[in-house]
Specification:
Length: 247
Amino acid sequence: MTDRTRMPTLSAPKKTFALVEEMADCDGPVRVSDLAEKLGYTRSTTYKHLATLRELGYVRKTGVEYSLSYRFVLLGTRIRGRSPLYRASNELIDQLAQTTNETAGLFVKQGSYGVNLYQSTSDRSETIEIDHYLHRTAPGKAILAHLSDDRVSDIIDVAGLPARTDNTITESDLLADELANIRERGIAIERGEQHPEQNGVAIAFEYEDEIAAVYVVGRADRLSSKRLEENIPGMVLGTVRRTKELL
């Protein structure tokens, strides 16, 4: 879509959602002054947005600090429950986690970023936050490899290639080489790119107008060598195939 045909937008909702996303990234309740400083808003503007969200039930206030309410969880649960991708894969993801004895999940492209739609853990693994930057994880790179070079460039223009660890790919040429290898193998592997002591495997697939990836992630001392490059990828591929059969 060109600039001439782009629909006009409103600035106020953009500020509200920027505030919501900033609060979601905080470890706990936050003060108005801290939010205003981080976002570059005035205290008055920040307070008005918070007051509106509080009136609608999306923000809670405790003393002089604010936090997001569980109402966002309700919305997310409703959205996920209606997703054919979630309904087709959740039980298979559970099986994958138990079979591999690691953390498994389904990651879905949303705009220039990704969303962890579902995750399951085995007895010895733990819940792992999957980075929403596509270039920093196995499922994200698997999704990027499903896109054309032009679309990958568009995503980089929006999201950039920020580093999270010393192993994160931060140069577009190196990312292009990585994506070419993923396309050839059909498998994406991460080695300490999201967390220093974490490795992962992912395989992407398309459903209608969405691109998703099934993944397995775990501690590098358990998920390495042949298990990382051969054994786990075969199990992930089986889960992808069964998911696609159910869609």
